[in-house]
């Protein structure tokens, strides 16, 4: 098992986009799910798509400690451009909503120690009907680089299978030619159904740094569950596709929005960490409940996501509406998560051993609960764990190998004291 | 319209169970949804079905201000009895979990200024397989009365259509004969599909104080939505069935449990108030987030629920995944609620006038937002309201008639100051 993983990593490494970026999954904030195409600044001065919104979120990322735990990108989505290119054929931001221009916004974001992402589309128009980059890849890539943009989300509206095959690689090449390191996020596979043979993940890895495999997330637990199920059901395709520099993207974190409970927020966050997913929140950082903020800033969970191996977790158990995943980590450690889609009132027990999750390499592991921040004790790989999972909740722990010598020392020590 | 309502109220009054109880919808706490049949006190000493749980909740109802806003019942559900009747053929509580007996628990609850509810079934066994009252209606009613029980939820497992027709009225009669005022909650219509011709709401009104029309609620927003849709779809049957002394029961409030967000909690609570529903929370009162508690203790929303007219709200608008209900209140006032099942990220606008909700009686109404606690201004009944509703959220207000003289005075006053 371990040998297989190492081989897959090597294969991935050799083929992935070699711009040196996002060796661990990118983290930040992205406007779309929460703010959509709200351009009504008269009625929603704080929430419309404009420079004030992105500056406000940049301020929050710093002042509320998000940057310190790893969230570094502030990403614009659709509806930012003017309706016309400028006299030189360049994209420009809507002059009412981005009066200082995108370059000034990038400077502001950089001054905060953060990075700026922007959005365009491989067709003639964006999904929201704004001017897009199809046919203008070179000038737009140069414009983004000149502005100091650090990431591009490249959508696929107003395109077809044939045009996408040309235009996604083309924009990737133009971004590379600018010489500026720009993370390239491709919506391409989501437009092809996300699976081979229509999606060639080997090719995608050579072109993009991350890619949206599946539909847009909505503010809905049902949608979170649907995404997690799809990831589990298609893991034999998805796991080998991902690794340092190239990531499967199940879309944004919606914790802190309107519809997820605290438990559901933990579940999405924990599972996105298990899946080595990009962690882009889309919420109003100024309106988060303290307990939601605590969840989304959990350093132990983030460490699982940011593990240097970059291996996507695998589902080993799906029974009684509970699913159990494990994710190999550096230095022989593993992360384990059991999440529930049950609705029957009380925590539900699930029993499994580390062996059931193909966790091996040591005979004993020390387990640490990542949301409860407590040691669960040490277990042999054959020993049965009896885990209770809340309805729609998650139980998540880190398993660290214990050498036989260490166990002996520990036991002697316990005997002495 | 007003005339129709008055007539319906009179009809209802004449036919409803005349034990003088629950002239407004009952409020309290009920164990089932959150605690189910958890009898594992070794592993869950605080959460298993036993006297400690109910005493803990009684304590909380008092110490945390719930009693002061109207929550007065502490209700036991399934799995409380011993597996055998006693030597005199009487029900007894499980001796391990209710070591002091139900009478002592009733005394404790009463000493707190609260009331105790209990649970049985019209079949031989409860849904959880415990001893039930079918065939022992007289002795069990007398036992409940002797214990000082104030309410009985009477379930319908291990029964059939024929036996229910006999046993539900029979237990009602036996309760009445005890001379103790005991609120009688019948699950009967839920077992018949909730609709005529199988359910005769006129008869039900003469027998029961409240009745479960539909399936058990689960810890799930989808289930809350399903219930609200069923209530709206069948309102022409349900509205005339309900009124002082006899209530349609859409089942427990699940705010504070595992799966509802704050907005979803507001929506369920606000809509249960609009539907003149019994308000029984099923949650762990010692683990509620402060903002959830604030919602469930909102006095303005509770006042809508407890309005003396006891008229169930009616749905007038269902479009774009937003539904708008209005509920006639005493003194010519109305409550209005618009809730959303949308998941598209941002608040969504809906436009309607008070006329669209058949609100009449005055030309102008003053509107007060019940969750935001703010005045929205005065509107003519023809004027268009432009309401924004959060995804899965609710906007709810009280409309108070303004006489033309008052408007004149107000306007003069506004001119002067």
TrEMBL record, chains A, B:
<keyword id="KW-0458">Lysosome</keyword>
<feature type="domain" description="Alpha galactosidase A C-terminal">
    <location>
        <begin position="310"/>
        <end position="393"/>
    </location>
</feature>
<dbReference type="Pfam" id="PF17450">
    <property type="entry name" value="Melibiase_2_C"/>
</dbReference>
<protein>
    <recommendedName>
        <fullName>Alpha-galactosidase</fullName>
        <ecNumber>3.2.1.-</ecNumber>
    </recommendedName>
</protein>
<keyword id="KW-1015">Disulfide bond</keyword>
<keyword id="KW-0443">Lipid metabolism</keyword>
<keyword id="KW-0732">Signal</keyword>
<dbReference type="InterPro" id="IPR017853">
    <property type="entry name" value="GH"/>
</dbReference>
<feature type="signal peptide">
    <location>
        <begin position="1"/>
        <end position="16"/>
    </location>
</feature>
<dbReference type="GO" id="GO:0005764">
    <property type="term" value="C:lysosome"/>
</dbReference>
<dbReference type="GO" id="GO:0019377">
    <property type="term" value="P:glycolipid catabolic process"/>
</dbReference>
<dbReference type="InterPro" id="IPR002241">
    <property type="entry name" value="Glyco_hydro_27"/>
</dbReference>
<dbReference type="GO" id="GO:0009311">
    <property type="term" value="P:oligosaccharide metabolic process"/>
</dbReference>
<keyword id="KW-0378">Hydrolase</keyword>
<keyword id="KW-0325">Glycoprotein</keyword>
<dbReference type="GO" id="GO:0016139">
    <property type="term" value="P:glycoside catabolic process"/>
</dbReference>
<keyword id="KW-0326">Glycosidase</keyword>
<dbReference type="GO" id="GO:0005737">
    <property type="term" value="C:cytoplasm"/>
</dbReference>
<dbReference type="InterPro" id="IPR013785">
    <property type="entry name" value="Aldolase_TIM"/>
</dbReference>
<dbReference type="Pfam" id="PF16499">
    <property type="entry name" value="Melibiase_2"/>
</dbReference>
<dbReference type="InterPro" id="IPR035373">
    <property type="entry name" value="Melibiase/NAGA_C"/>
</dbReference>
<comment type="subunit">
    <text>Homodimer.</text>
</comment>
<dbReference type="GO" id="GO:0004557">
    <property type="term" value="F:alpha-galactosidase activity"/>
</dbReference>
<dbReference type="GO" id="GO:0016020">
    <property type="term" value="C:membrane"/>
</dbReference>
<dbReference type="InterPro" id="IPR013780">
    <property type="entry name" value="Glyco_hydro_b"/>
</dbReference>
<dbReference type="InterPro" id="IPR000111">
    <property type="entry name" value="Glyco_hydro_27/36_CS"/>
</dbReference>
<comment type="similarity">
    <text>Belongs to the glycosyl hydrolase 27 family.</text>
</comment>
